[in-house]
ribonuclease H
Amino acid sequence: MQAQVSAVAKELRKKMEEVTEKMEEMKEEMRRNSSHVAPVQGEAWENRVYWTVWIRWPGTSEPQKYEALVDTGSQCTLIPSEYVGTEPISIARVTGGSQELTLLEAEVSLTGKEWQKHPVVTGSGAPCILGIDFLRNGYYKDSKGLRWAFGIAAVDAEGIKKLNSLPGLLENPSAVGLLKVEEQRVPVATSTVHRQQYRTNRDAVIPIHKMIRELETQGLVSKTHSPFNSPIRPVRKSDGEWRLTVDYRTLNEVTSPLSAAVPDMLELQYELESKAAKWYATIDIANAFFSIPLAAECRPQFAFTWRGVQYTWNRLPQGWKHSPTIAMD
């Protein structure tokens, strides 16, 4: 038995580097929620899914009940307890330092009736997380009768088609559409922000210059004279090309908050399951923000300067704090 636990411990040590400071956040959240008990499996708190988990620790007969965060990104299952395992586990943190926990084998159940032995990382300071190592063992049907399955499945690539073109679409991949909606009146900064352009990467100068000319030709940006100004911050993409981004961090700090409609991911999952569709499609909407027009009185705050000429956005800009919320509305 101990040999099996030792083998599992070695494997976990290799994967522990993937467990980051997110675990610290989960630990604090579970402490705040420790007094709550989810009435049904799969309940969402703050847009996260929690399941009730029963643990029967070694040498005990009565199981203990926990509300664990379902985290498919976690490579291991962690449960807080005072029990000490035989194998030490050290979790490295991105911010430095480490968290010392131990590994032991316990009996785990999602129903309180069906049990299976499984290695659990535990300690008094451990977060309460149900990881993919346990989830991939099978599936579970929640109170609504929906089947939750995890793991890796083989996919027949012959049935997958990628549409690179459709009749009626523009051939120019950089072309941006315009939604037939009213010009959006967005929150204006509570104070003027004027930051000078800082030195940029020399390799980015020519590509960014061409991008601004293309944006001006399409009407996405236009020349202006504004008391506002934010610096351009070119970002190199994975394919070696450059992305035009403006550093709106200071502008974001003086912009009033806007209520956001956050989707309930659990309800979306239920809705997809209820449709029982055979085929699903994904659509990559490129430059979606740029298709949303801005009201003239809101544009000056988005000004930036390039090679001595000041421009501003006529469409919803990338990098501004409220662009995602407005685009989803």
Q: What stands out?
A: The radius of gyration is 26 Å. Residues 2-149 form a domain with the Cathepsin D, subunit A; domain 1 fold (CATH 2.40.70.10).
